[in-house]
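The pair is quoted verbatim underneath.

:::
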Amino acid sequence: MISRRGLLLGGLSLAAVAGCAASPQAPRSSDPAEPLPPVGDRIDALRRRHNAEIGLYATDLESGREIAVRDGDSYALCSTFKAYASAAILQRAQQGRLGLTGTVRVDRADIQPHSPVTELRVGTTMTLAELCQAALQQSDNAAGNLLLRTLGGPPAITEFARGAGDDRSRLDRWETALNSAVPGDPRDTGTPRALGTGFRAVLTGDVLDPAHRQQLEDWMRANETSSMRAGLPAGWSTADKTGSGGYGTTNDVGIAYGPQGQRWLLSIMTRAAGDDADAPNLRPLIGEIASVVVAELHQPQ
């Protein structure tokens, strides 16, 4: 493991140092007399306390400083794919291949568990923009499937991911089957680094033109399901997308924006360490991991 002042932390099994707190330390000003324990040790302490597997990739988009813990391990994407689906819709809109005001009919057969927006629109139509909003801001599953149908099915997400520089994420199934998250099943999976790389490209790169990139950011800033925000200081905001599924799988990926212009990419993917398909989600853990990242990136290099 390279120290926390280095660029990367490998996917090693790290023992927590003596005196490491059971919960992540809140962001604070650096005190050379009281240095923080290595970030890998703090993440490992959270892993043991929550009996969870944790994959993390984070980077300061201005300085390039990175934090990586088991960032190449595979986790189920779950609803994080909806950010790619919405970005792909925006990309086709900028190419003139479809219009965001184009409509899609919502039928009763389309409704899946957790479809809080679309279930109220059965028998009517929704615009593609409305479906993107529902998928991104409330993780509406029927909206996710209707976007997939518009794009040509799950393989379209895999293709879009590759174009965004994400060389690992793949989508094979539809909602809600894609959330089964069986450990070892390669379907519908990605890694923290690959997924974070793709999110960075669609939110800050040239995958989308400025207007459509801003639209995606605006939609994602209004996300109502964020888990990472609980671990961020006051005055920060995020453009992020969550996902959850079987075996306690709980993800949150996006960019955190600070009041002094900070832009930090956080790609957090977790699951329960056991073999219980009905293990509860790990939303509180996501916030604790975000707090550790904030504390680390606030330290001087």
